[in-house]
Automatic annotation (TrEMBL), chain A:
Domain of life: Bacteria
UniProt name for this protein: ABC-2 type transport system permease protein
PANTHER family with a match to the protein in the record: MEMBRANE COMPONENT OF ABC TRANSPORTER YHHJ-RELATED, MULTIDRUG ABC TRANSPORTER PERMEASE YBHS-RELATED
Recorded topology in the membrane: Multi-pass membrane protein
Family: Belongs to the ABC-2 integral membrane protein family.
GO molecular function annotation: ABC-type transporter activity; transferase activity
Assigned keywords, A-Z: Cell membrane, Membrane, Transferase, Transmembrane, Transmembrane helix, Transport
GO cellular component, one term: plasma membrane
InterPro entries linked: ABC-2_transporter_component, ABC2_TM, ABC2_TM_bact-type
Compartments it resides in: Cell membrane
Automatic annotation (TrEMBL), chain B:
Family matches, as SMART domains: AAA
Domain ABC transporter as annotated: residue spans: 7-234
Name of the molecule in the record: ABC-2 type transport system ATP-binding protein
Gene Ontology molecular functions: ATP binding; ATP hydrolysis activity
PANTHER family documented for this protein: ABC TRANSPORTER G FAMILY MEMBER 20 ISOFORM X1, ATP-BINDING CASSETTE, SUB-FAMILY H, MEMBER 1
KW Glycoprotein (keyword) present: no
Domain of life per record: Bacteria
Listed InterPro entries: AAA+_ATPase, ABC_transporter-like_ATP-bd, ABC_transporter-like_CS, P-loop_NTPase
Keywords on record: ATP-binding, Nucleotide-binding
Record-stated family: Belongs to the ABC transporter superfamily.
Gene3D superfamilies for this protein: P-loop containing nucleotide triphosphate hydrolases
Length: 380, 308
């Protein structure tokens, strides 16, 4: 039992570690459940070649070629045509709101040009605030529409690929809001949300556990502070910290990355305020559930990873299956990303993003309510 | 409901899971009284105190604290009670002055700065007010905690083992302060392990395994125990002590320096047991005073048997 290494001493250490692991239920559950949940969640939800993207067609002509192209697009699974705009202005507003990612305009002279073999054109406007989502669907468009046109003309699809210069269908692609397809335009505003979420939730998730671990909770509860006072007193200081972060990230976005800033600063800052308030209350809610700071940390990460993956920050939101999108809607980050991209890159005003602002605001009373319900004003 | 009682609770019961930690405890403390709360570790002292100040919800029991319902008016009770926790529970990363300011503002003292300045002066800590509370020694932490608890001039002071780990001089000063506060009309309930501290209380309550076993003045408790003590003067060999301890009627045999305390409930049996010892050794045996400690040892063994 002496010397540098004893298997019995090692055995004693191992046995002790396993006992402690078993006692800390949350940690143990996290170690087993989290990999499984995340594997299933992300394995099935994430798709880099998104299908079913929300799109709209503005068909200005009524000829058979137009109808052929429209129906071919409608049956393809690349797009989901929910909206039927009647005018260019209506379509424009749908895109500003983020309700559609693509607008396909078939000009009124489309049929005539096809028959005259005079370079028929289709205008594609893609919401390039998310470059990854836009690119795949744009390239698919050419194939689908081209085939439909060939079939409508009664030609053999494969035998005559050239057809002649004037025959070939051409696409005019407008990458809206981000014509140069710069990734930073998408990432940097999103990063503001991610950074705020990371720091705000993590800091406040320790709010109560720190008091409990240091033994100061007993004293705090014995004094006449109410649950609401403790909650607000704990989370509001982090609003100030968040404000500093906002200034730094927005400043960097402008100066270092030259991200366009089209919308109103006041509207953006108000939305950021609501977002940060939701985050600190979420963190505080976590701190009412965790018993130790370590658990608070683990719960924060448990929340952080899916919100990063399913919010549309890393992967196109529209490309995820319906259930994953529904799950994604439950994260404040999802709504914040839509808001900040709309304001900064599209110049959206409150009318365009009103619904998203309402959804984001709803998190505040929900989190505050859960936290107050979970808060124990006794040591029971 | 009597207004002259600061604490008047009956049937207080608290269970954690299946374990009953406090079992049907009655407690009545008159205004201005210092009541010592005694009992072994884990006997339910802290839990009882926490129920009185509203930090724990009793599973059963009723009564009043400062005339307020202990079950429903804990918020109001908190404002008039000072509770000093067993473990130092102020912010170690705040300075002394910052801790006091925080407490003063929570209690809504106006002006808070003035109350703090007065407290600092009273503590003799004015020159060290910018020192971090975490760097204070045990004795100073205790003084700071007490000062913070009485800053809002509570009517009832609850002290949970306030002198644990504090040197005798600081303990003496602490008790002088407690008596001064009680003299000004504050009611004090203090839990302790120390017999000498129990003797500085007006009345004591003894709790073991969640049950209140005795209450009264020290004399009443000692007398009520029915214990008789004899003191053997001189050195008694270990073998003789073992024989004595096994003898009929002897409940406790405890050496105190050069003397031996022999305790039992039956005077005649005790005398009979001691007779051979004094005859063999020629040591002087005479009736002695039963100490509070003897009584508690008896209570503990008795309660243990009942709990088992």
């Amino acid at each position: 039992m002496t010397g540098l290494f004893s298997s019995r001493r090692l055995g004693a250490m191992l046995a002790k570690e396993f006992v402690q692991m078993r006692r800390d239920r949350i940690t143990f559950a996290m170690m087993l459940a989290v990999p499984v949940i995340q594997l299933l969640l992300f394995g099935y939800a994430i798709n880099n070649d998104p299908r079913g993207l929300p799109a709209a067609i503005l068909a200005l002509g009524q000829d058979r070629y137009t109808r052929a192209v429209v129906s071919a697009l409608e049956v393809s699974n690349y797009y989901r045509f929910g909206q039927r705009p009647q005018s260019a202005a209506e379509a424009e507003s749908l895109m500003a709101k983020g309700e559609i990612s693509f607008l396909i305009t078939i000009p009124s002279d489309f049929g005539t040009r096809v028959e005259r073999a005079d370079r028929p054109r289709i205008l594609v406007e893609a919401d390039a605030t998310d470059p990854a989502a836009a690119s795949g669907a744009v390239s698919a468009l050419g194939t689908i529409a081209g085939r439909a046109l060939v079939r409508a003309q009664g030609r053999e699809p494969v035998t005559d690929p050239a057809g002649g210069e004037g025959d070939s269908l051409s696409f005019v692609v407008h990458r809206r809001y981000n014509p140069e397809n710069i990734t930073q335009y998408n990432i940097v505003p999103g990063l503001l949300g991610v950074i705020l979420q990371m720091t705000m939730v993590m800091m406040t998730s320790m709010a109560l556990t720190r008091e409990i671990e240091r033994g100061t909770m007993e004293n705090l509860l014995a004094m006449p502070a109410t649950a609401g006072e403790i909650m607000l007193g704990k989370v509001l200081p982090y609003l100030a910290v968040g404000a500093v972060q906002v200034v730094i990230v927005l400043g960097a976005a402008k100066l270092l990355f030259a991200v366009p800033f089209l919308g109103g600063l006041g509207l953006l800052l108000s939305c950021v305020l609501v977002f940060v308030l939701a985050l600190v209350l979420l963190g505080y809610t976590i701190s009412t559930m965790a018993r130790t700071q370590l658990q608070a940390m683990q719960l924060t990460f448990f929340f952080f990873l899916p919100s990063l993956m399913l919010s549309g920050f890393m992967f196109p939101f529209a490309g995820m299956p319906g259930w994953a999108q529904a799950l994604g809607e439950l994260f404040p980050l999802t709504h914040f990303l839509r808001i900040i991209r709309a304001i900064m890159l599209k110049g959206a005003d409150l009318g365009d993003i009103g619904d998203e602002v309402v959804y984001l605001s709803l998190f505040v009373p929900v989190f505050a309510g859960v936290a107050l319900m979970r808060f124990r004003s006794t040591l029971d | 409901m009597s207004t002259s009682l600061a604490i008047d609770v009956r049937g207080m019961t608290k269970r954690f899971g299946k374990r009953t930690v406090v079992d049907d405890v009655d407690l009545a403390v008159a205004t201005g009284e210092i009541v010592g709360f005694l009992g072994p570790n884990g006997s339910g002292k802290t839990t009882t105190i926490r129920m009185i100040c509203g930090l724990l919800k009793p599973d059963a029991g009723e009564g009043t604290v400062l005339g307020l319902d202990v079950r429903t008016q804990s918020a109001a009770i908190k404002r008039q009670v000072g509770y000093m926790t067993q473990r130092f529970s102020f912010y170690e990363d705040l300075t002394i002055a910052e801790n006091l300011i925080f407490v003063a503002r929570l209690y809504g003292l106006k002006p808070a700065e003035q109350a703090v300045a007065k407290t600092l002066e009273g503590l003799g800590l004015a020159s060290r007010q910018d020192q971090l509370a975490g760097t204070l020694s045990g004795g100073w932490k205790q003084r700071l905690a007490l000062a913070a608890c009485i800053m809002h001039q509570p009517k009832l002071l609850l002290l949970d083992e306030p002198t644990a780990g504090v040197d005798p001089k600081a303990r003496r000063e602490f008790w002088d302060e407690i008596h001064r506060l009680a003299g000004d009309g504050m009611t004090v309930l203090v839990s302790t392990h120390y017999m000498d501290e129990a003797e500085r209380c007006h009345r004591i309550g003894y709790i073991a395994y969640g049950r209140m076993l005795a209450t009264g003045t020290v004399e009443e408790v000692v007398h009520g125990s029915g214990l008789v003590t004899f003191v053997v003067h001189g050195a008694v060999k270990p073998a003789q002590m073992r024989v004595l301890a096994a003898a009929d009627g002897v409940e406790q045999v405890a050496p105190f320096g050069a003397t031996l305390h022999v305790v039992g409930t039956d005077r005649a049996k005790l005398e009979a047991a001691l007779e051979p010892l004094s005859r063999e050794t020629g040591l002087r045996v005479e009736p002695g005073e039963t100490s509070l400690e003897d009584v508690f040892i008896k209570f503990m063994s008795g309660a243990q048997e009942r709990a088992a």
